[in-house]
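User: Hi! I'm working on a homework problem where we have to compare a predicted structure to a textbook description. Could you give me the structure for the chain below?
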Amino acid sequence: MPVPVLHLCCGDSAAEVIRAGLNLPEASVLILRDDLAVGPLGDVDGDRPGARAAFWHAVFPDEDREAIETGGAFVDQLAAEAAALRSLPETAEAFVIWHGNGAAEQLMLRRALRALRDVAVPVREVEVTPDDRRGDGMTAVAMLERQRVPAAEATARPVAAARRAARAAEWERLRADSGGLRHHRDGTITTHPIDAHDAEILAAVGTDWIPAGRAVGQPMSTITGFFATDAFCFWRLCQLAAQGRVEFEGSPTTIRGCRVRRTR
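Assistant: Happy to help. Predicted structure tokens:
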């Protein structure tokens, strides 16, 4: 049976903020967990997105991968998310899509509007405005203070059919693009090579040993256009090690289990 209003958001932290702020039951929030800013998108909407699953399997350190896959293999979780989007029009009498200005949430918005492009029921969006917490104007729903959630929902604006169609077409274009990274700035999503931030990640590593967690923490706070995760930055650090540009002490199967320095 359709719920009266279904709220869509990117990630568990965002869902927790929305549910707590509006006192909503779990069934009223659909969590889309895939970080669409990173990795190939070609098969993401398919029945068996094997290429995208293989990418995430390579990115996550062993410890994180094992924890995530307690909920099922990557390919099964991604397939379930794609199926949920395909069935979206039948699940609610109205929809509210929550997003900030990072690439992942902007791509989620476009993907959701692709699924909802032809629905006759109301579709609204809530855009979380910058609070300058990071100092660079980047926002995410999870950054919203819970007491501000009702006021944010009050700003929800209808998504007209023309906007739905335009965003749906943009999603199709971006899904077909072979770029490994996507940035969002000033309403535009651009694609970039997967190693676009390697120099920034390398700059956080010196010639003395430092914990890998410290090495990935710095670029996480300075990279703009998308919210770089610790898993992504650590994976790129491992790629730099494979190139001989950095070296590890300890096992690089987990961020907390090793130290890193530039190759001497």
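For your comparison, note the following. The mean pLDDT is 93. The beta strands are 6-10, 29-32, 95-99, 123-127, 157-158, 181-185, 188-192, 210-211, 246-250, 258-262. Good luck with the assignment!
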